[in-house]
Amino acid sequence: MPNEPAERARRITVQRRGPLLVEGPVEIELEDGTTVSSDRFRVALCTCRRSRRYPWCDTSHRRKA
Q: How far is C-alpha 53 from the geometric centre of its chain's CA atoms?
């Protein structure tokens, strides 16, 4: 629609051996279909699946495997 404001692109920062940093707010759909959301200005998403707060990163990736 021509009169609708353009939505600003989200910035996602990839960190080697770390979480994905996503500019918020965000809404995430999990594998089971549930959604979680955060209104923070930046969120860290777990990529190693070690987090006890998945999908949010709790720095568990820092521990040795």
A: 12
Taking only the tens place, the pLDDT of each residue in 4-46 is 555 777 899 998 888 999 998 999 999 999 999 999 999 999 9
> 3-state DSSP: the chain helix, strand, coil percent, rounded to 5?
5, 30, 65
Residues comprising the chain, all counted: 65
What is the residue whose two structure tokens read 């998403």? 45
pTM of full prediction above 0.85: no
List of long-range contacts for 45-51, beta carbons under 8 Å, 24+ apart:
45/19, 45/20, 45/21, 46/19, 47/18, 47/19, 47/20
Beta bridge partners of 45: 20, 56
